[in-house]
Amino acid sequence: MEAVRAATVNDAERLGQLSAEFLAGVVSRRGGLLLVGGAAGPPGGAALAERLPELIGDAERLVLVGTIDDAVIGFALCHLEGGGRARSGVLDACYVEPGARGVGVGRLLLDTAVAWMEEQGCTGVDGTALPGDREAKNFFESAGFKARVLTMYRPLD
Predict the structure, then answer these.
(1) What are the CA-CA distances from residue 66 to residues 82, 92, 109 (Å)?
(2) Pick from 38, 43, 39: nearest CA to 55
(3) What share of the chain is helix, strand, coil (3-state, %, to 5)?
(4) Do the strands 71-81 and 125-127 form a parallel or antiparallel pair, or are they unpaired?
(5) Where do the structural domains in the chain lie, given as residue ranges?
């Protein structure tokens, strides 16, 4: 049975593995290295595992795990930005290991994260899909997301 729950410190090792898989997939795509290399990138790999107690204790962040029959096969990480009418939510990561995709765990993670952000008074939610990542774009669009900005980048010497 598919389920989502808040992460606990006992999930640290598995979250480290999943986060490393997530980051490997991100950096292999166009623009991915820039995304995770910057300060705005999600904590990854061992960093997520090491930072889990801090993240769990932060009222401005939520770490979820997705499970099938109690086995952790995915995670979502989000945080809050701004305040008042300008409060928004940011989905930093939503990942399900490839062999477990297509059964609804990713959507359950996303829906749970969005519901939490709504409960926190957010007026909107941002999620990132890299250029050419049709699968991520379709995933977001199926949940009601719409592209609102396209950021162009040019490296300088």
Answers:
(1) 27, 15, 6
(2) 43
(3) 40, 25, 35
(4) unpaired
(5) 2-142
φ/ψ of residue 25, rounded to 5: -65, -40
Task: Determine the length of the chain.
Answer: 157
To the question of domain 2-142 being in CATH 3.40.630.30, the answer is: yes
Nearest one of 80, 117, 113 to 7, comparing CA atoms: 113
Question: 54: number of CA atoms within 13 Å, CB side?
Answer: 6
The answer for residues whose C-beta is within 8 angstroms of residue 77's C-beta and 6 or more apart is 42, 43, 48, 55, 61, 62, 63, 64, 91, 92, 93, 94
- Tens digits of per-residue pLDDT, 69-120? 999 999 999 999 998 888 999 999 999 999 999 999 999 999 999 999 999 9
Long-range contacts at 84-88 (CB < 8 A, ≥ 24 apart):
85/123, 86/123, 87/120, 87/121, 87/122, 87/123, 88/117, 88/122, 88/123, 88/124, 88/125, 88/126
- Distance between CA atoms of residues 136 and 93, nearest Å: 11
For residue range 47-61, list pLDDT tens digits in order. 777 888 889 889 999
Name which of 115, 85, 109 is nearest 95 in CA terms: 109
Residue with tokens 């592209």: 147
